[in-house]
Amino acid sequence: MDAQELKQYLADAPPSVVRLEIEKHFDALTDRQKRYAHFISRASFQGSRIVARQISPESEPIFDFILALHKSSGGDWKALQAKAGISDEDLGHFLQYAAQFLGNNGNYKSFGDSKFIPRCPESAFAALAATSPDAQKFYNTTSGAIFSADNPSLLHLGYPEQGHMTTYYPDSRDITKAEIDAVSAWMAKKGLLPENTRLAKKKDGLFEIWIASANTTIPSEGGDIGKETTFKIEDGVLAGKTINLVYGDYFKELAAVTASIRKAAENADNENQKKMHDAYAKSFEEGSLLAFKDSQRFWIRDKGPMVESNVGFIETYRDPAGIRAEWEGFAAVVNLERTRAFGALVEAAPSLIPHLPWDKDFEKDKFLSPDFTSLEVLTFAGSGIPLGINIPNYDDIRQTEGFKNVSLGNVLSAKAPDEKIPFIAEKDLDVYKRYQDGAFEVQVGLHELTGHGCGKLLQETSPGEFNFDKKNPPISPLTGKPVTTWYKPGQTWSSVFGSWSGSYEECRAELVAMYLSCEFPVLKIFGFGDGSIDIDGEAGDVLYASYLSMARAGLTALEMWDPKSGKWGQAHSQARFSILKCFLEAGDNFCKLDYTGDDLTDLKISLDRSKILTAGRKAVGEYLQKLHIYKSTADVETGTKFYADMTHVDPDFWGKKVRDEVLRNKQPRKVFIQANTYIDEATGKVTLKHYDATPEGMIQSWAEREV
Fold this sequence. Notes:
By secondary structure, the protein is α+β, with helices and mostly antiparallel strands. The mean pLDDT is 95.
């Protein structure tokens, strides 16, 4: 790989290190609530090594290498520099790489799924390693993978068959996509949920499904599909092959997690919280995702807690097959003031959803009003921190029992000093800067609540039983004819749409938010305007900032598209690029890209504010309607072809000219320094410790977590 190509994979210099402020909100909790938050925080962080192990083989030894250097030097990096005999610049580049690594819990970006490589020479890392026997041992274990860039395919996460990196299929470089899909289909037929599993292809026709559990043997009463652990496959792609269930993946980490979860249960504020943590403990100890689903049911019922949390194998974005989930856990404190606005949005939701471009046949019979809270994050352990969350991801629970939404306030508001804003025209900068936070809060609220919360899946719920009138099927607004496809028994949204499901659903939710943000009573809920249509007033400023922000996000998304593989590395980025294309194709000069030179160095977004409510909203509605109906009717063939076309990147204009300018203006992505909590065993009092917003502070915070 030449130096020019390699530049896009170099670690940020400097990274944007931002502290998550929590002290004021944490101090307001009772002692019992602080203990509850502390033990959830510990459980979340105790799973951090799981995340590293899910990213790349070298991520965990890199983690240990960084912490071994901190331990041997006592955090005196200048003394370590002198001992290693490296330059100031090389030490700086090591610290910057370490901060970005710890902020992503691995050496692939959580937002983009591409590898990042230190800017200093390999010899500087070798010299640092030589200062400590432990550091040397861990450095050797990385086998040169920190700096390796000779195989471009391995610089991106994805299917082994395509040469990409993944550890969801450990030591299985020869496993094919067809084999992965066949095992997934077998699991779905058996009723074995995949989120807490990995799949290994062994010799002689053997496949092992590794189940995450503290116990290394199947529970005495049996697992989620009974007491059998060996299955001979008789037909299909896997005919003649054997599948073994192997318990105990991540057993050491999950034993520690389970112990902390049980202590959280002892400090619960109510019975739902206690039952939730008891179900977590059973799930993590025994590997039962049926128990985990129970935890989510109790979580939904725990309305209005002061400490909010969720822990487990949650999001499936990084598994190339889109079904196995990454570990994450969070503990957060409710911001009562901001939560009031989200509560008002929940109350308004049943009157907003009928505005969406489909009729009641494609909508839930009843909107299950969820809890929607604004949270201040104490701990978020995973590969990255989102801005909002809508879970659980199990459709059978969402459709009948509900879900919860959270907006992460101190993540939304966290700012790095001197943030640049490329691609926004000078005339728009003032309104954009003033209202981008407000616009983003509205967008996140609508995205999580109404976006992920709306819609009905037409299903044959059990053989011969349907959740719609089979004799008089709903009429598709796309064809004007009765629908002919639906979900069969045992099928889910993600099992049918597979690896497309994550990005497709994020796009659908973003479009719902863009469509409903044009309802001025929604903007009033968040404190903008009086609810009447006024595109030139303050509410109009927020709406304009929202559409500009989405267009800009679609442009900068091209950083996450890999020209060599033609592959998108991030679900939200893929979605936002398609929405920019939707804006540009809306007609009536609603949105265009302005530039004078062929090199696009003065590229700016031009968006006609006066046409948001006409051409803009019409185009958004038409795109949204297609995505929604294809999803609702399980029309995977038409839906994925349509979405593939909308997210296609023309290699010459978008993939070369525009992307080169995006990379030239690339801004470092924020990495967050989180506080640690400590409990005095004698008094039961919990204290909080913050760290400096520097690479050194990031390393110290992780060293003192002792995970």
